Amino acid sequence: MSIDIRQMLSATPGVADQPDARRTGAIRIESRSSRISPVVVTGIVRIVEATLVLVTGAAVHLAYVSKITAFGWGYATAVVAVAALATLAFQAIGAYTIGALRSFLVTGLKLTVAWTVVFLSAIALLFFLKAGDQFSRVWLGIWYGGGLVSLLSFRFAASRWVRAMTRAGRFDRRTAIVGGGEPANEIIRLLQAQPESGIRIVGVYDDRDDDRSPKVIGGYEKLGRVSDLVEHARRTPVDLVIFTLPISAENRLLQMLGKLWVLPIDIRLSAHASKLRLRPRSYSYVGSVPVLDVFDRPIADWDHVIKWLFDKIVGSVLLVLCSPILLLAAIAVKLDSPGPILFRQKRYGFNNELVEVLKFRSMRVDATDAAASKLVVRDDPRVTRVGRFLRRTSIDELPQLLNVVFRGNLSLVGPRPHALQAKAADRLYDQVVDSYFARHRVKPGITGWAQINGWRGETDTQEKLQRRVEHDLHYIENWSVFFDLYIMLATPFALLKHDTAY
């Protein structure tokens, strides 16, 4: 299912619509404990178990065989081949799911059988290739036993940890149901009948208040309208939204999606009651419930891990390399005008959360505008002499490397975070561009796609802000680590080319 975001927005009300304050009081506030991605956990288990097989095979050779036979290409190939076959075998028996990780006894028995079959297959292959005399039988026997012990020991420890995380709800997909009546009742019933699905329903929402949508649906109290869900998702974690509306309710769907797509969540359209029958590959599944994918949370699972590592590693290197510049800039700010070296400002971060951003102070202390209610313009008298140079070269932004490396509330690359009262054409940014808050589906960055394309600095007109937001959305929809790397490498050249920062 494909939806054109820009077309959808043009046909729906502005996403900046605020929820009715009388309704938001009914929303239940939940714990903000971070969710652990099952995809990442099972991926790490694969890596660890393959490593255990490799290390065990090499260690047994080093301890028992190295004095007789060198660890040559034959042994190295055998170790790698057995590790690969074992990983495939474990995958085939379904050992890489959260449910399998929780159940040590059942999964341990399956692993034992799979590991044994892999070794017997390897021995049979050596026999038919007439290569058995090239490998130590003692090595094979001890590797089989040692590998099995190491795999089962790791699985036992992993199962205890997974069970603890499951009890804490760390694997749950916190799910909101949109829609009322019998379709919503049916979805809730199906999900509750599947305790292994990892779905935890956090509320039901519907824009209707008539008999078709009662106050209690499937045992869950209706918490409000879709606009209330937007506010809910800003204040407490929501991972997934499932629409129970029929596909034929196109206008209602578009209106609701126009409000929800700005959130960093997965959005699915239930297909279990639809008369429209598509090919099986057209559906994904929430438990056993077929759904159509509408929006996916950007930069999730392994993408999130890769971006986090990129920020921490590259950010740390840049912090060390830029330390002389940081020191000189700090001295210059201190000597140029009285006041603190750093300027701290609250800005909108991921999912509209407030983050404190660090910058070198570039204005006189008595003229500092923490809310950015008045944009800085060319030859602005509030800017100091040193501050003017720092802003033009973007050196004033370098302390944000501390945000990236130590605080973790900024990324190296992403949409630039804006101050709370920043305005274009005398209106707040979210009032100028309907899709403005969609920028906050990912963590903000020090530099971004908009900045290297000339849309940095002053945003005094609607057109400038619109172009910046369009570039930010393009970045979010097309993210890759190579895209981040390209933007990082292009940033110094963009600073030399464009002179729009005052």
Give an account of the 3D structure.
This protein is an alpha/beta fold. It has 3 domains: 38-167, no CATH class; 172-295, 3-Layer(aba) Sandwich (Rossmann fold), CATH 3.40.50.720; 302-497, no CATH class. 49% of the residues lie in helices and 13% in strands. The strands form 4 sheets. An 8-stranded mixed sheet has the order 3-4-2-1-5-6-8-7. The protein has a two-stranded antiparallel ribbon with strand order 9-10.
Counted beta strands:
14
**How is the main sheet built?**
8 strands, mixed
Q: What is the CA–CA distance across the termini?
A: 45 Å
| Outline type | flat
What percentage of the residues does DSSP assign to strands (E)? 5-15%
Determine the oligomeric state from the structure: single chain
Give the spatial strand order of the biggest sheet: 3-4-2-1-5-6-8-7
Average pLDDT, rounded to a whole number, is 84
Number of domains: 3
Structural class: alpha/beta
Question: Quick summary of this structure?
Answer:
Helix content is 49%, strand content 13%.
Helices, strands, pairings?
Elements: H1 5-10, H2 21-24, H3 38-65, H4 73-92, H5 98-102, H6 104-128, H7 137-167, E1 173-178, H8 181-192, E2 199-205, E3 216-217, E4 220-224, H9 226-235, E5 240-243, H10 250-260, E6 266-270, E7 284-286, E8 289-295, H11 302-321, H12 323-336, E9 342-348, E10 354-360, H13 385-393, H14 400-407, E11 411-413, E12 423-424, E13 427-428, H15 429-432, E14 445-447, H16 449-452, H17 462-477, H18 481-497
Parallel strand pairs: 1-2, 1-5, 2-4, 5-6, 11-14
Antiparallel strand pairs: 3-4, 6-8, 7-8, 9-10, 12-13
Helix pairs in contact: 3-4, 3-7, 4-6, 6-7, 11-14, 12-13
